[in-house]
Amino acid sequence: MSYKSHSHAQWSSRMAFVLAAVGSSVGLGNIWKFPYMTGESGGGAFVLVYLICIFLVGLPMLMSEWLLGRLGQKNPISTMGDITRRLKRSRAWVLIGVAGILGAYLILSFYSVIGGWALAYIQMAVVDTFSGLDNDSVGTLFGNLLASPVELLLWHSLFMIMTIGVVVGGVAGGLERAAKTLMPALAVLLVLLVGYAATTGAFAEGAAYLFTPDFSKITRDGILAALGHAFFTLSLGMGIMMAYGSYLSDDVNIGRSALIVVVMDTVIALLAGLAIFPIVFANGLDAAAGPGLIFQTLPLAFGNMAGGWLFGLLFFVLLVFAAWTSAISLLEPLVEWIEERSPLSRVGSTIVAGLATWALGLATVLSFNIWGDFAPLGMFDKFAGMTLFDLLDYVTSKLLLPLTGLATVLFVGWFMGRDELRSQLNMSDGAFALWRVAVRFIAPIGVVIVFVSSL
After folding, report:
1. Contact status, residue 337 vs residue 105, Cβ threshold 8 Å
2. Which of 290, 305, 284, 280 has its CA nearest to residue 125?
3. pLDDT tens-digit map of 60-94
4. What single DSSP character describes residue 305?
5. pLDDT tens, 250-267?
6. Helices 346-367 and 95-126 sit at what angle, rounded to 10 degrees?
7. Which residues are CB-contacts of 52 (< 8 A; sequence separation ≥ 6)?
8. CA R_g for the chain
9. Which CATH architecture has domain 14-454?
10. Where are the domains of the chain?
11. Could you give the C-alpha distances from 192 to 198, 319, 405, in angstroms and in order?
């Protein structure tokens, strides 16, 4: 029985699909989070653990989401509804689609605010704001940005307008066109920055830090961080890859495409590390500076080196491109659902979804300043001191995404027929057997470990 809707959009080519999927995966997590996590967790040892995790957990989960999307050819909620009806499974599995779309919506509401920070830093780099700043001055610069609701609102609004402007064009005119333009541009910018890092005199030190494993530095927290990041960097559990899979034709090899996406996502994260760590070491700064690495440590370096304004500008343009490609994908599942379940056109659906996301983002904007002391669940010890932004981050990263990802691999691994999976994946006997072991046992155990440890 076919699920295909003849009016449903399709990717124009496998390459367009892969570029769009890589664009979704490559985001702030690669350029911002991966380098500082590597710095905090001991460099090369963390990278090695991360590579093991992304291939054993991330890859089979990515293939599972694409497989479901292609079978359903609809938004994630309708896809799960159709598949469960045909297989005569519990309708409760539809919650996979509901939770995925909800998670993407909540994440984009605060992701857009952080994307706005990168836009603000482009403006600062253009006017050479970083020049001559010391450590305290750079911290004050970032603090002043967060303390201004008007400025944060401006940049958040601009970032959402950029995102809506792409998604409104649909699959071919929006998602594909953006991926074909932004991903090559992002790659060029990253190569330029790595080239500059090679001239700092600390490139060998940065490369050694990134690629030389020091197993004495592998800790339980580091392993959990690597496992969690492998899961989140591929945009899993958010309805994104299921939505992207719904535009996928039958002739695209899911396994081969997923492997390309995982490799490209990882390469870009490692290149970001090669661009960042030599600059950090050349300026005598702390590689383990945590979340402040991008918005405080690097501006300090850019402000105290020759041509720093230019390379600072290139870096924050790179950061915006990475955030933009991910934001586009985060908005898509909600837009697809509204378009298919309402009389609204693609344009109307995108505007409604975008405005709803922008409105929720106001809570994040205000949580850094006017509502900074407001803890919605402060009556519970675990949530004491959590702002609205902290709460949104916690609910999505610690609860919604792991549970959605876990439910997805359990459904695919244990409640779908072996023959149907085999026909969809078109893999050799050995490769299919390995994938099935990973999706039935390894990936669920990995997600459960992350989930339980985070609680």
Report:
1. no
2. 305
3. 999 999 999 999 999 999 999 999 999 999 999 99
4. S
5. 889 999 999 999 999 999
6. 70
7. 226
8. 21
9. Orthogonal Bundle (1.10)
10. 14-454
11. 10, 14, 36
